[in-house]
Design a protein that fits this description.
The protein has two helices and three strands, in the order βββαα. The longest helix is centred in the middle third of the chain and has 19 residues. It is rod-shaped, with a radius of gyration of 22 Å. It has a domain of 47 residues. The chain has a three-stranded antiparallel beta sheet with strand order 1-2-3, covered by helices on one side. Helices cover 40% and strands 21% of the residues.
């Protein structure tokens, strides 16, 4: 993680090069670190592969007819 002071923002900007686009900011070092932790969690959730859905037993008759 990179943490830099941004004079234009008058605070700190944290970015995570291992997660492109994952960054946050805060007026203090502690604030930026707290916010970037939340951003990391959010980035990882978005990047997780979707959970496969399985048809229910109620869908089986419809699926059988579609496949035949």
């Amino acid at each position: 993680m990179n943490l830099i002071f941004d004079p234009e923002y008058n605070g700190y900007v944290a970015d995570v090069p291992q997660l492109p686009g994952c960054m946050s900011q805060g007026k203090t070092v502690e604030g930026a670190l707290k916010n970037v932790r939340k951003a990391i969690v959010a980035c990882l959730k978005v990047r997780q592969p979707p959970t496969p859905t399985h048809p229910s037993s109620q869908d089986l008759p419809r699926l059988r007819s579609e496949l035949s």
